[in-house]
Give the backbone structure.
Amino acid sequence: MRQQLLNTKNQALALINEASSPEEIERLRIAFLGRKGKINQLLKKLPDLSKTEKAKVGKLANEVKQAIENALNNKLQVTSYKLQVADEFFDTTLPGKKPEVGHLHLITQAIEEITDIFTKIGFIRVRYPEVDWDWYIFEALNMPKDHPARDEWETFFVNEKPDPKKGKMVLSVHTSGGQIHEMHRLKGKPPIRMLNIAKCYRRQQDVTHTAMFHQFEGLVVGKGINITHLKGVLDHFAQMWFGKGVKSRIRPFNFCFTEPSFEVDFTCSNCMGRGCRFCKSGWHEVGGAGMVHPNVLKAGGVNTKKYTGFAFGWGVERILSLRLRLDDIRLLYESNLQFLEQF
């Protein structure tokens, strides 16, 4: 009887393999596994067997049933899929669909490009805390205690116990605090060519400001460093970022941490300085710069009788929006794929 069960199994599997429709598969299921199917017909002979033989045949019968059931189910799935595909037009010569591939965010791309521009002229990329002490962010940068930026309406202060020497804990309002950290790291011994790119935080939110943004800070300290060196770096960046023919200009301004201080403008790359609807005057303001104030150098442990330096700090989003001609800087943070996929 065991041999009969095995023969029935082999016969069933062969027929199932050749089946080509769900209806045919169902007929085979009834023929072999139905109440009057071949397996049940064979099992009617069990009473004629010895007790030991019954156990062996019963176990084999269950295995045969399971094998036939699995074969029927698998064949039904394959047949149903083929019928579904056959109802759809399918051109086998078409290339396959490639999976969608993303790209770096616009701001990340900008940071990498800015880093590349400055490292090629000798700047070294550094990184310093985004949560810092009042002393690094304000005091060491020659900012008086009554300066508006040190007001709670302008700066995010962290609700932690102040340090006895360094004051309150704050979210960095600018990357300029990195100047002091870098001078301390080098123990006040130039030369220094620092590029610090980091997140900054201020209580501002509108079409040209966000509460969190990115800045890049440049600092050069050495013997004989003067404004002509600063102007050369500004012109170099202007042409590398906006294109050939773009120039920089500096206008007198007032910053606590530089003396003299300047506002920096770049030629509008859209009209090349002639004046257009986008720039109005032929120039775009990009940020601040100047010669490092002696008090800042002293706070960093640098000998002001031997060394001078210049610094500049601009918003990454600011120069990116100028190049892309964005009217609303918040577009960079809205995660709108229709906008981001353009770049």
Observations:
- Residues 33 and 39 are 6 Å apart (CA to CA).
- The chain has a mean pLDDT of 86.
